[in-house]
Amino acid sequence: MKQKANKGGRPRGFDRDEAIATAMRLFWRHGYEGVSLAMLTDAIGVAPPSLYAAFGSKAGLYREAVDRYATGTALFPLQEEGENLTLDQALSRLFDRAIDTAAGEDGERGCMVSTGLLACHPDHCDLAGELATRRRDTAVRLDQELRRWFTPTRSAEAARFLCAVLQGIAVQAKDGATENDLRAVAELGRAGVTAMVAIRPEISH
C-alpha cells in the first residue's frame, strides 16, 4: 500500500519488511533487470532518496529480497530430526516444495535463484555471481543430504542431476506449465534418482 512521503522522502509508517516483500515479488516476477527504480519506488511508496537511504542501492534491495525469498522457500532439510524417511519419500518432499514455490497459488511463477540473472548486463556480473554461488550451494547441500542413502560419489552425481531437474521445473513453471505437468517431470526425476540405487545394490532406499 502506498503511503504519502514526508518532506524527507520517507513515508510516515515506512515498513522496511513490507518494502522487502514488495520488492521480492517484483524481482521474482520480472527479474532484476526488468524492474526499474521507478517501479520499486512506486510499488513501495517511497521517493528514490528514501530507498537508497534504507537499502543503499537497487542491488542492495535485491540482495535482501533474495535473502527473504530463500528463507521463505527453503528446500531443506529433506529429513527432519527424528524422521526416518526412505529416499523415495525424501525426493517426493523435495519436489513438492520446489513445485509449490515455482507454481503455487500464493507466489509468482518460477524461481528467483534457479533462473536469476543467468544472462545479464556486464554491470550486474557481481549479482549474477552471487546467484550462481547460491545455486552451487544448493547442489552441495543436496549432496550432503543424499549421503543418508548414497555413497559420496553417487550422492554428488544424484545432486547434480536433481539440480538440473529442479532448474528445469522452475523454467517450465515460468513458461506456464501446469502443476500436473511439473509433477510429471518431478516423477521422472524421482524415478531417475531411485533407479541409481539399483546400480549400487548395497545401498537401500
UniProtKB/TrEMBL annotation:
Segments of the chain annotated as binding DNA: 36-55
Q: Does the keyword Transcription apply?
A: yes
| Keyword list, A-Z | DNA-binding, Transcription, Transcription regulation
* PROSITE patterns per UniProt: HTH_TETR_1, HTH_TETR_2
Domain HTH tetR-type: from-to ranges: 13-73
Q: Which domain of life is it from?
A: Bacteria
Do the record's keywords include Transcription regulation? yes
- Which Gene Ontology molecular function entries are recorded, alphabetically? DNA binding
Q: Which Gene3D superfamilies match?
A: Homeodomain-like, Tetracycline Repressor, domain 2
Among Pfam families, the record links this protein to: TetR_N
**Could you tell me which InterPro entries the record lists for this protein?**
DNA-bd_HTH_TetR-type_CS (IPR023772), Homeodomain-like_sf (IPR009057), HTH_TetR (IPR001647), Tet_transcr_reg_TetR-rel_C_sf (IPR036271)
Checking PANTHER family in the record gives: HTH-TYPE TRANSCRIPTIONAL REGULATOR YJDC, TRANSCRIPTIONAL REGULATORY PROTEIN
Q: What is this protein called?
A: Transcriptional regulator
- Protein species of origin: Celeribacter indicus
